[in-house]
Known about the structure:
Elements (H helix, E strand, L loop, with lengths): L3 E4 L2 E3 L6 E6 L4 E11 L19 E6 L2 E7 H12 L3 H4 L2 E3 L6 E7 L6 H5 L9 E2 L8 E6 L12 E10 L10 E18 L7 E8 L7 E8 L2 E8 H10 L8 E5 L17 E23 L6
Antiparallel strand pairs: 1-11, 2-3, 3-10, 4-8, 4-9, 4-11, 5-6, 5-10, 7-8, 12-17, 13-16, 13-17, 14-15, 14-17
Amino acid sequence: MLKRRIQLKDITGIAAGRTALINLPVGPRYHSVTLEVGDTGIAATTAPTLTGANNIDGEVRVLFGSAIQRRMKLTHLDNINQSMGGANVASYAMTGTAGNGSGRRFLTIYFHEYWRTQLLSNNVDLDALAWPTAWLGGSKFQVQYDIPAIAAGGLLGAPALSATAVIDDYVGDGNPPTIMKWFRDDFGSSGTTVSLSTLERRDAYAQISAFDTSDAKQVTQARLELGGVPIVEDMTADENSLFLREHGMVNQAGCYHMVFDHDDSLNDLLPTNVNSMFLKLTLSAASAGTISLISQRLGRPEATS
Length: 305
């Protein structure tokens, strides 16, 4: 189906320390949304970065109605996008333009997952992963972006934000679609291991990404059990990186990515209709902070009001 590229013009709340709201027209099917972030007050030739003094690393949420369907920081988004890219890592990475006050960073939220190359080679219709919105009726489709405050080392005072989207005119059958949702959960990281038995057991998991702790400790080994059966059995970070590379991915620094649909097939997603789910992460050194997990799960949209 013909895809169109549009400007998202309904954007409010663009200010340091505020939440910018990007309202997307309901009706089309969305393949991606690209954020263009900058600061017209920067007196330098470089664009803002995801880390450092003028960072733009705020949280992003994607909503149907009032329910969050995706939640992540921009650093999470860029790391995961790059990891999925493999040999084409630059195709999905954050890009930037330079200029005094005109430097910008571009990051894309992908609904249609173009990196599933094995499915593409088999002519599988990956448009099915795009998000139709006609079923929403009068409910909103919205992206929220928490612009960092100046006091927190964020933008220098004059944030700029715009956005574009890739869409088509597929309407669907009027029912809520099956979509790939992203959930961010932050857990305390005390000591050299983090053990979790409270992970959500619904939908089907495509991936769990465990990021470095808030005090810069890396995940060096992971164990995941489903119903007492090891799915990822004490794999070191190096072993995991090799495994991902063998399946066309490149693990980026700062995160341990457990990918379950590594053959690109949606039939390989991790089922959760079991009585227990246990995750143990071993850290590079004792931590006294928090660790962020981004879980990607395929299922119906979260309930909205």
